[in-house]
Amino acid sequence: MTATKARSGWLRFTLHYVEMIIAMFVGMFALGFLQSAVGLSISHTEYPDLGYLVMACNMSVGMAVWMRFRGHAWWPTLEMCAVMFAPAVPLFPLLWLDVIGGGTLMIVAHIAMFPLMLGVMLLRRAEYTHHAHRGARATEAL
Asked: Transmembrane residues, as ranges (predicted)?
């Protein structure tokens, strides 16, 4: 592999990471806005665990839509969506035992998502450095 190809692969990897973060936040804000507009918003102060799960779901929807648009199969898409919920596993018991508050839950969980996403991407590096777009595969099939 030439240095140019390797650099190009890492550039794609980095671009994909940034795209997924953007898609995650678009899903969180857009779906959160729609939920509020129809009266389905959840008080993060009263129900921080439920609020977090809804927010993680909204982020997952945004990321899944973008990953499927980019041509990823369901398995890597669902694996990446699982990362949005993974911080709840160690943090919810701490919340329920009053060791941390709802605000801390949200901050720590959101910060944890970034390295967790990166970790999954590094484990499946080929998926994110050499992945063809759906449009490219459709064109090749013709």
From this structure: 21-44, 50-69, 81-97, 103-123
